[in-house]
Write a structure and sequence with these properties.
This protein has 164 residues and is mainly α. It is built from 9 helices and no strands. The radius of gyration is 18 Å and the shape is elongated. The relative contact order is 0.08.
């Protein structure tokens, strides 16, 4: 009996999570936040905390976004997405050195299938520092991992054009 109750709670949590994601993608951030919180109340997952953080970033609340990602990391230190997201939020705040630490942690996480994002973000930091050849290499790695990564291609081509 208990197992069925857990399964139904887990399903309800997933329903709120999916609803929150759809609301977020439609720009309904406050409603998305409420649904992420409902999901987390039923069944806390690192993914839901990370997505809630992402939603906070859309409304410019980087402090809450980073806090949610740190909570995600506390639940699963091998989940790479929140490390990368913290790095991205710190870049948005101009905290490049601090961001680099988090991005390197993302690349070392065992459960992170989107490492191209960390390479891209590291490339942005290196480019900001004027380390153009190193930045090109990071963008190249991102493109190699995800050939359709348009932002990485644009940054790579723009920077390469400047250097020619």
């Amino acid at each position: 009996m208990k197992e069925n109750n857990f399964e139904s709670q887990s399903e309800k949590s997933k329903e709120y999570l999916l609803k929150a994601y759809q609301l977020q993608m439609n720009g309904k951030f406050e409603e998305a936040i409420l649904n992420y919180k409902k999901s987390l109340k039923i069944h806390p997952t690192p993914e839901a905390h990370t997505f809630l953080g992402w939603t906070y970033s859309f409304i410019g609340d980087y402090e809450k976004a980073i806090d949610e990602c740190k909570t995600a990391i506390s639940l699963d230190p091998e989940y790479g997405n929140p490390y990368n997201d913290i790095g991205a939020y710190l870049i948005q705040q101009g905290k490049f050195e601090e961001a680099m630490t988090w991005l390197e942690l993302a690349l070392n996480a065992n459960r992170f299938s989107n490492k191209q994002f960390a390479h891209f973000n590291i490339g942005k930091i290196l480019e900001h520092k004027g380390l153009w050849f190193e930045a090109l290499e990071e963008y190249r790695k991102a493109i190699e991992m995800c050939p359709d990564y348009l932002l990485a291609k644009q940054r790579f081509n723009r920077l390469q054009g400047m250097l020619n």
